[in-house]
Amino acid sequence: MSTQPLPLAGVTVVTVEQAVAAPFATRQLADLGARVVKIERPDGGDFARGYDTAAQGLASHFVWCNRGKESVAVDLKDPRGLALVRRMVAGADVFVQNLAQGAAARLGLDAATLCAAHPWLIAVDVSGYGAEGPYAHRRAYDMLVQCEAGLVSVTGTPGQPVKSGIPAADIAAGMYAFSGVLAALVRRGTTGRGGPVEVSLLDSLAEWMGHPLHHGMHGGAAPARTGLAHAVIAPYDAYPTTDGLVLLSVQNDREWRRLAEQVLGRPELADDPAFATNTARVAGRAATDAVVAAALAPLTAAGALARLDAAGIACARLNSVAELADHPQLTARGRWREVESPVGPLRALLPPIVFPDAPEPRMDRIPALGQDTDEVLAELGVPEPEVKELREAGVIA
Questions:
Q1: N or C: which end of the chain has fewer CB within 10 A?
Q2: Which entry of 170, 203, 237, 289 is annotated as an active-site residue?
């Protein structure tokens, strides 16, 4: 039975956001109990709403990043709309924005300006490359930042670099914005003051590049692209069975001995100088992979996994996205819920952070554009005739 509230219950967040990075950050806040008011353009809203129609007519990115929020459609280019948003921010605990570089400052919605006016406010600027430097005003889309950060250079096969299959730069920045807000809330609890928080996509993904970056800076060369194989550990790759690929990872020479004796049926390889150490196995990767592949090829994937599990060797199947959606571990742990949306209930995963002594994370509806405009303006005390006038003028929707 829960004994504590969700950790962010009572926290109000106002966000001027689009695409993935900032929406992903604020969705984490909503999941943990915060009230998140999302400001969108009246003429179409967050442009991620139009990325695709894969989620029963809704955009998959938008469904993923925007549950649990209230949508208020306001034209920030109109002084009347901007004034409304400023009133919302004045009553908020947190403000998040990821407008194009310089746009928030022109509107007076940058973190420095807002925190000077509201000392208790935590204001987050999410940018592509940061507020200063030669790249500050460049457009920063996820794939471009993946390239600038070097992620693409270490991802793929020896002959072909590839981008990550997920928006890694956006996700990295979103998670650092989320954790930055949490840290700032803790600090405000002890000092009584909020303050600005800055997060950039490049900084975030550069941090995630720590292993290849340090390998290259201190070792003389970045790890080579090796497809599914690990650049500095062997065997650590995918191997074919009779009905699919199986991945396995040998982390040390004790595990190699177990693999040789219990899975490969080649106990002599445990002490063979060509295989006995990871350094030797990496140097002779082709021979290492050949002996592993030969042992697994006659087996089914299930049989190979059972044999590897019995030997205490880390292993996995190469699942498709559809197989992830039906993953037995997620099902067994009850990780799926349904989220309401303008097109009806949609299946969604519970967020990864679990508080066993609190209620489940909030997974409230995905809002239609402007679904909450009237309610939020009523809370601000805007009279109904003024709301009607603003709507007729296109300032709100």
A1: N
A2: 170
